[in-house]
Known about the structure:
The chain is an alpha/beta fold and 453 residues long. The chain has 15 helices and 15 strands.
Amino acid sequence: MRWFRPKKALVQPLLRQHFGPVPLNSLVTASRTFPETSRVDLQQAITRLFSDRYQGRLLGVHPEHEHFTMTMAHLVTDSHYSVFVGPLQYDEIDIGEAAPARCLKRALWLAQGTQMPFAVLLSPSERFGQQLGLHLELAVAASENGLELSRTFFDVLEKLIHQTGSYRGKVISLEAARTMTGHTGTIKVHKLRSVPRSDVILPEKTLRLLERNVNDFIEHREQLKGLGMAAKKGLLFYGPPGTGKTHTIHYLASQLPNHTTLLITAEQVGLLDHYFQLARFLQPALVVIEDVDLIARSRENMRSACEESLLNKLLNEMDGLREDAALLFVLTTNRPDQIEAALASRPGRIDQAIEFPLPDAEGRQKLVRLYSRGLKVPDSVMPLIVKKTDKASAAFIKELMRRAAQYQVNQANQGDSAGSSPVLDAAHIECALDEMLFSGGSLNVKLLGGCAE
């Protein structure tokens, strides 16, 4: 028995039919390359454009080889690089909504303008299998009308992309293309916990400085721009580990109206240009660079030219922003003395340093109330906790309350008070402190942000 493979339908005959008397080798093309991070916005913009302005037939296209960017030249010329018509293929991309966004992989629109036909090709911009972005190309007959159609198409498309902003107002970072869910995309949307103002336990002086440089600044940003003042601001959060820097960033991310938050970790500094491009597109934005001392340490302490190049990249990106860019930078560090002076001592890059100190007695009492959650802390026990946590961080107090609660629950389960309201006593605190400060050794104390004294 002989098997016959079905004949594949080439794209070229459909293009000849679509353009009629216009020879395919006389068509002219214009193209744009969009970053992979704009894929969802590009897809939605194209869909709107063909729905509202142009009539078009949508086709799925499949190249015989997938090692480099497919262009119109591959569709209209006779070569070994054949392109076939086939089913439309989509990737599902997480954008932080209930359902992922569906984006075409490769597609061809055979469309009709007011006076002439044209075609639009969407394909990955790739080289040797590595995707570099998105290639969008328009082909039309060579004429003044064709030139005008091409310009209008891309102008309207770019306006629609800017209006879309699928990630605007969300907390995002750049990372690996695929996840275990099967969704794809280079942007990860984070669902941070919402932190109310009452949960930010800081000294009153620190709170006033924070609100003046963040809340008040954003409230008056447009008026400052009208006076010709800069709309961007850089802040440096510094202090010992566990004193609330990241917690405060979560508060800002959940409270700033209409701001997109971009989270940049030290290992992602190589993607700074992509982050800043996103920040400009999605502004107003909050750009967070945690542990900035890892990439912006003093030049005297650098061990290689590579480290210095990363620092220069950060400085150049911050300097390259327009003064009217509605961006707020928050850089965090546990070691402010090691930061390069060109960053820390330069207004326009860092405009205000805000210290996050270890909590005082009043702060520790508020933190105990905050992190005791459903536990009742008697007035007789509170002074003991406050005294025993002198020189401890907020993170240490949070863990202390969790471990004390575990001892309380264990005792309640073994006794007759399992169903009663949970109440801490001094013994629970002492047991938890002994485990955290002494049983685990000095390394455990350091890890938890406590003080063995």
